[in-house]
């Protein structure tokens, strides 16, 4: 049975204005401003939005709760970190929000480096970090789906734990989807056994085809005991009325980034993870890859989902996303700035071309 595609956006919970070229208004992170974005997503056909995490920015779960309370259909994809949260506390908080919203919670588990000491956390090497993440995801899922859970792992312990309220099954959905990213071997082993959705950044299609095949093989080799792993794409989509206008605007944005050394664009400066380095290395293959994957932003400070952009008319960008979908990708997390106007533009011009 084929899985229907879902299209989400990105809501920036940032301390400073002007994130990735957004309008630099003083109230950029007020509840009214961010609620306007969430309601625009509802009104323009989007399922919900990713809300990023990291020490030194507003708390993600608090913001997701506030936006869910002010909307009726908006589904927050809440980025969280093991260590910032312990499994039982997070499972309880998420189950409560899921209950109060009628099943609108999604979760993005993040293992990348952060300012751990600032909130009293510590980690060892990569193996330790991903081992902890694996335990976290397995235990959270058990707490959502089982009662009287006892677990003693290398990183976490609970005894006789029952999370309330209990999560209600909603069709095939037994609990909030767990999204996960990462391109290292350790990360892929976690995704293959514990994630519901593996999120990729904007790589060329040949690279993602290889990774999807590898993750499917790992799922078999590691005896995955969950439903088949889904795949998602987190990428910037720069859509304009014409091809010429899209490329003119893209080049102008990159020129602006060059003048400011990418200020406000790169959320991943502490260390270059494997997945981020893969993106940065793409520029050596060419400024435009596949049909319209623009690599220049990564040369001038773009990071994460801002490293590569799909550029073009709505039809051209939709055509590229359809080719990613043909690889087996069903979850799409898109964005461009200014965030609010692009929610509307792409909801009206791009999404109708992508309906199943």
Provide a count of the helices.
Answer: 11
Topology as a string of helices (H) and strands (E): EHEHEHEHEEEHEHEHHEEHEHEH
Nearest-angstrom radius of gyration? 20 Å
* Overall pLDDT level: 93
Quaternary organization:
single chain
Question: Which structural class best describes the helix and strand composition?
Answer: alpha/beta
Q: How many distinct beta strands?
A: 13
Poorly predicted segments: none
**Percentage of β-strand residues:** 15-25%
The largest pleated sheet is described as: 8 strands, parallel, barrel
How would you describe the shape? Answer: globular
Cross-sheet strand order for the largest sheet: 1-2-3-4-7-8-9-13
The first-to-last residue Cα distance is 14 Å
How helical, in percent, are the residues? 25-40%
Please give a handful of descriptors for the protein shown.
single chain, 356 residues, alpha/beta, 8-stranded parallel barrel, two-stranded antiparallel ribbon, 11 helices, globular
């Amino acid at each position: 049975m084929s899985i229907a595609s879902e299209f989400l956006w990105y809501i920036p919970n940032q301390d400073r204005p002007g994130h990735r070229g957004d309008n630099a208004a003083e109230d950029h992170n007020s509840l009214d401003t961010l609620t306007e974005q969430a309601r625009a997503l509802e009104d323009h056909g989007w399922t919900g939005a990713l809300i990023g995490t990291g020490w030194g920015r507003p708390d993600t779960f608090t913001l997701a709760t506030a936006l869910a309370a002010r909307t009726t259909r908006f589904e927050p994809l809440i980025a969280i970190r093991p260590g910032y949260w312990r499994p039982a506390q997070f499972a309880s908080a998420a189950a409560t929000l899921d209950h109060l919203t009628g099943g609108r919670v999604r979760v993005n588990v993040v293992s990348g480096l952060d300012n751990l000491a600032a909130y009293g956390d510590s980690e060892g090497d990569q193996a330790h970090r991903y081992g902890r993440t694996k335990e976290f995801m397995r235990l959270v899922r058990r707490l959502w789906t089982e009662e009287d859970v006892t677990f003693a792992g290398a990183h976490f312990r609970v005894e006789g734990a029952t999370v309330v309220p209990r999560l209600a099954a909603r069709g095939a959905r037994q609990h909030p989807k767990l999204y996960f990213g990462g391109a290292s071997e350790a990360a892929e082993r976690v995704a293959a056994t514990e994630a519901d959705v593996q999120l990729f950044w904007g790589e060329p299609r040949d690279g993602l085809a290889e990774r999807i095949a590898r993750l499917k093989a790992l799922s078999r080799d590691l005896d995955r005991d969950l439903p088949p792993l889904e795949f998602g794409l987190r990428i910037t989509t720069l859509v304009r009325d014409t091809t010429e206008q899209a490329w003119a605007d893209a080049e102008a944005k990159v020129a602006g980034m060059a003048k400011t050394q990418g200020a406000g664009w790169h959320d991943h400066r502490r260390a270059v993870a494997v997945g981020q380095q893969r993106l940065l290395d793409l520029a050596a293959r060419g400024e435009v890859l596949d049909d319209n994957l623009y690599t220049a932003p990564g040369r001038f400070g773009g990071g994460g989902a801002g490293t590569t952009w799909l550029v073009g008319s709505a039809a051209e960008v939709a055509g590229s996303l359809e080719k990613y979908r043909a690889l087996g990708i069903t979850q799409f997390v898109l964005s461009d700035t200014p965030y609010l106007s692009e929610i509307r533009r792409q909801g009206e011009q791009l999404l109708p071309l992508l309906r199943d």
